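Risk register update: the risk of archive-format incompatibility is retired. Evidence:
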Amino acid sequence: MEIMLLQQFIQGIHPLPETVLQQFTSQWQPLAVKRKTILTAAGETERYLYFVLTGLQRAFYTGEGQKEATIVFTYPPSFSGVADSFLTQTPSRYFLETITASRLLRISHGQVEEWMQQEPALQQLLFKATAFALRGALERHIELQCYTNEEKFRTLLQRSPHLLNLVPHKYLASYLGMDATNFSKLLSTVRL
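Archived output:
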């Protein structure tokens, strides 16, 4: 069942021949982790690509004075991991942490590389997945740079309304680039 969710997700990004899909997804291993588990620490190189089955994760940066900036949330069904570190095999500048207990599937960078050399269709899959991630990152950049706090708040609730009840509000405020007080005010004044 878990592999079938991964297969459906992959086919939605870039359809693979059935035999390639079956063989590739059979290489993914299950992983269950508790809440507040650091999957990847800043300074480590991301060794895995994850597929989220259950739970919620966040990538965050810790700056001077240990101030955290939440960069992205991942939840089912989606890929997870520190993408730039995984793709370039360089040390991550970010942490990847579970917010809730999570069940994931994962595959190592070496296995992905090996499969991409064997199957051009997997190169296309990775290219498209990376393109979608880049598009999302650029949209977020525009939101952070150009939207008012209320517009950022409304956009988050349109895109991922379930996060409001699952994610500590301090992480949501950080993700939106505002302080927790402003987030709290928006929460009580914005009518949805």
